[in-house]
Amino acid sequence: MHEKITLHTVGSSTSAPLPKAMPDRHQIEPGDKVFAVDTDAGILITALDPDVAEAIAISDEITGRFRHALKALAVPA
After folding, report:
1. What are the pLDDT digits (tens) for 45-58?
2. What is the separation, in whole angstroms, between the first and last Cα of the chain?
3. Pair 22, 5: CB distance under 8 Å
4. DSSP codes, the chain
5. d(C-alpha 9, C-alpha 23), whole Å
6. Could you tell me how far CA 15 lies from the centroid of its own chain?
7. pTM beyond 0.70
């Protein structure tokens, strides 16, 4: 889904109103914290903390690489 939105000035900040369907779909509401990430492709607004997303990706890679060892360690003694 993509929507064209108009930016507004609020004090010394810039506001970007989201169409109602977007926050509803991602279960966010006014007052929730989101992250604005400056990328080469533009600005990404995400409810997922980019640092947490990176940690999850690293964890997935490690658990995949060492899945046999982790499975052996998980066996009760």
Report:
1. 888 777 888 888 89
2. 50
3. no
4. -------EEETTEEE-PPPTHHHHHTT--TT---EEEEETTEEEEESS-HHHHHHHHHHHHHHHHTHHHHHHHTS--
5. 21
6. 19
7. no
Residue 67: what residue type? R
On the 0-12 / 13-18 / 19+ scale of CB atoms within 10 A, 37 is middle
Q: Which residue has the tokens 């000035």?
A: 9
Tokens of 7: 């930016």
Residue 25 buriedness (CB in 10 A; 0-12 / 13-18 / 19+): exposed
